[in-house]
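Appendix B. Raw example, untouched.
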Amino acid sequence: MGTDSALAGQAAKLLSFDEARVRILTGVRALASERVPLMEAAGRVLATDLVAPGQLPPFDYSAMDGYAISTADVEGNGPWALPVMGEASAGRPAGPLARVTACRIFTGAPIPPGADAVVMQEKVQRDGESIRLSEPVKAGQHIRRAGEDMDRGAVAIGGGTRLLPGGIALAAMLGVSELAVARRPRVTILCTGDELRAPGDVAGPASIPESNSAALASLARQASAVVRIAPIARDEPAATQRAIEQALDGTDVLLTVGGVSVGDHDVVRPALERAGVTLDFWRVAIKPGKPLAVGRSPSAHVLGLPGNPASALVTFAVFGMPLLRALQGDARPLPFPLRTALAAERKRSADRLELVRASLESHDGALTARIHDNQASGAATSLAHSDGLLFIPPGEAAAGKGELFDFVRWGDA
């Protein structure tokens, strides 16, 4: 079956959301790696395991302000009196502990050789140059042992991990100054349409500002992409083909916006094919965003997004963002949804998964989603005021108040 007839067959039977996402992510190969300074590694994906070069912590240290002692000096029945000799603080270790003495010690200070416990300062009485304690002391108390958090040679952070602040902190504590991460994906955004003008340009008859590229670029950069905005392509087949060919040069992911439906002026889908893009599927059973075209050129992944702002941003969030993360070898390219209660009853679509713009609220300690009234594909207000997308599967019965559904925040896409 040829490409045209295969895609025509999809017009009769829409691809399910889950099947579409599986097909987009199947066979994605991670980009090459590069080394970056630790200070620039946030949000990047580790290309290889980070192996601990040493123990963590690197030495025994005190967990409290107090006094380091040897428990052998306080055996039997108390109370005990010990002269204080020496002081240890963070970065300033003391010498070996003399027999039957105590060493003043502060949190983070190395444990002096010969000491095996720390007594909190609140548990002793200080009398000049001596301390007096009356409670038994256990060996090891208030001491953080070398290697108790991590041994040398252990995998500190696995390859394929997206680096969050905690991972950056761990790498820094291990003394690592740079990391091997996946190269940033190169994304090119090509918007199409005779009606479009650049934001700030003088308005012409029936023209509208091109609003999709800024929003899509913002979301793509959230996945560490490097974004290029191509000049607007007009609704003319040859010009659109040339624009696509130019946009494909040097990119990993091409996003075309608009012109992928079946109208007389929807010229993008055939132009993609003439430019050497093999389309895998077209049309998905979701709302908004049904006319989504997905394919590959010899060098790039291609997503043909609908032109309406909500449809473009929603389809890129649920399909394009996982693709960008998979290209970086992210072991978890899909977001973890929140299980969220519906704030009010709502009719369902009979045959399509609805990706509904909603805001999160808390009622009686429970997380709820309040759906915005205007869910039109061109509605910008619900995009701007929503926290993310509520996933409502198709069905004949209405979705009831309090019923639980998956919710993905824009910031987690």
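End of appendix B.
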